[in-house]
Specification:
Layout: H1 14-24, H2 26-32, H3 38-45, H4 49-77, H5 79-97, H6 103-131, H7 134-148, H8 150-166, H9 169-189, H10 204-216, H11 218-248, H12 253-281, H13 283-307, H14 312-326, H15 330-339, H16 345-371, H17 377-401
Helix pairs in contact: 1-6, 1-7, 1-9, 3-4, 4-5, 4-6, 4-16, 5-6, 5-9, 6-7, 6-16, 7-12, 7-15, 8-12, 11-15, 11-16, 11-17, 12-13, 12-14, 13-14, 13-15, 13-17, 15-16
Length: 411
């Protein structure tokens, strides 16, 4: 166990976890909340809606690059300073968006927003993995996911209400206010988990060597691959959900929002069950169960869409079941992967997050390109992600148990 791991830390209570959850949800908030306003923003800036829609890709590029950079920076300057600096950049970019008058300024600010917002994604993973042993970290990561899933439920309708009442710029004012409160909470509640004696110089060569060393470890690399494929399956669903329910099943946008919210809430409920079972069952067995259940439910969904493509109720139930299964996978694979690297936890957290968004971006783009009007493509892509993740996890677990290194804190 690392010297910085202190499961009984006095600041490890609910308020710190709440703040870490809010920080982790920055990306979801910044992605989902402005979606109802894309056409209005385009009209205000004098461009096409597709031009404004491209700001989502720009944001994700900044988010991925930011995660890649945050590890070395946090290893040099500490977790708190990097977190505060990143959130400050996120806030500066957010408040700059409300002042822009053209597309270039909007896209530039969105890129910087993603770059700074990466601190809210990657630093909480570092803090949790360094503060807690693997079992407790798995529980905290699952809780962070539950808090984070509030954003996909609440952000689009809240964005729509703000758009109707106060205009599109009020959406980014609101994101900025939430970010400011989160920053103040982080200053108060988030401890420094990397002592000065363990900090490392910021050198390109040593950073590259550190990343390569992590990738050469097949146990960590396979666990990271599994985690990336799990998230990719989730993003395939998020990207295709509107098409499936509105275009394929013919539901209204309001009905789609209710089903999307229900699937998100099922993730929260399943996360609570996962936490209740952790001490009794263990994170490895819960992870295996979650991935197996996910593969089973999306495989059934593929079969359903192949033989009865118009069956709404069983299709919706299988989607909810598959999303619920992910709550037994996301937090546990994160805890397991980040428990292994020891003193390289900062680089490991960055690499883990960067891989997730890189895989999700590539797989989501390929799935969208193949989809056209074929509703079978998204569940097939989800099934492929789930099955590949299960294989990668089983290989990682087998290598670890055969003595290929040792997972710290293994149960």
């Amino acid at each position: 166990m690392s010297a910085t791991r202190t499961p009984g830390h006095r600041q490890s209570g609910w308020f710190m976890i709440l703040i870490l959850g809010l920080l982790t949800g920055f990306d979801a908030l910044a992605i989902d909340m402005y979606l109802p306003a894309i056409s209005v923003i385009a009209g205000d800036l004098g461009v096409m809606p597709a031009d404004v829609q491209s700001s989502l890709s720009v944001f994700l590029v900044g988010l991925a690059l930011g995660q890649f950079l945050m590890g070395p920076i946090a290893d040099r300057f500490g977790r708190r300073a990097t977190l505060i600096g990143g959130v400050a950049l996120f806030l500066a970019a957010t408040f700059a968006i409300v002042q822009v008058t053209g597309l270039t300024g909007f896209l530039t600010a969105r890129f910087l927003q993603g770059l700074g917002g990466a601190a809210g994604v990657v630093i909480p993973r570092m803090v949790v993995s360094e503060m807690f042993d693997r079992r407790r970290a798995a529980r905290v990561f699952a809780t962070l996911m539950q808090i984070m899933m509030i954003a996909p439920v609440a952000a689009p309708p809240l964005g729509g209400l703000l758009l109707d009442a106060l205009g599109w710029r009020s959406i980014f004012w609101t994101i900025g206010i939430v970010g400011t409160l989160s920053l103040l909470g982080a200053i108060r509640a988030v401890p420094e988990t990397l002592p000065p004696a363990k900090r490392r110089p910021l050198r390109l060569g040593s950073t590259a060597a550190g990343y390569l060393a992590l990738l050469r470890d097949p146990v960590f690399a396979l666990a990271t691959l599994a985690g990336s494929l799990i998230i990719s399956g989730l993003f395939v669903y998020i990207g295709a959900s509107a098409f499936l329910f509105i275009e394929h099943f013919g539901l209204s946008p309001q009905a789609y929002s209710l089903i999307f919210a229900g699937a998100s809430l099922s993730l929260v409920l399943a996360g609570r069950i996962n936490n209740m079972l952790l001490d009794r069952v263990g994170e490895e067995r819960l992870l295996t169960f979650g991935l197996t259940a996910y593969v089973a439910s999306v495989s059934a969904l593929v079969l359903l869409f192949a033989v009865a493509p118009a069956a709404l109720v069983p299709g919706a139930l299988l989607i909810v079941a598959s999303m619920s299964s992910l709550s037994f996978a996301v937090g546990n694979i994160t805890a397991i992967a980040l428990d292994r690297p020891g003193e390289q936890s900062g680089l490991a957290s960055s690499l883990f997050g960067t891989a997730q968004y890189a895989f999700a971006g590539v797989i989501g783009t390929v799935a969208a390109a193949l989809q056209h009007d074929n509703a079978l493509v998204p569940p097939v892509a989800m099934m492929a992600c789930g099955l590949s993740a299960l294989i990668a996890w089983r290989l990682s677990r087998a290598l670890s148990r055969s003595g290929h290194g040792a997972l710290r804190g293994a149960s």
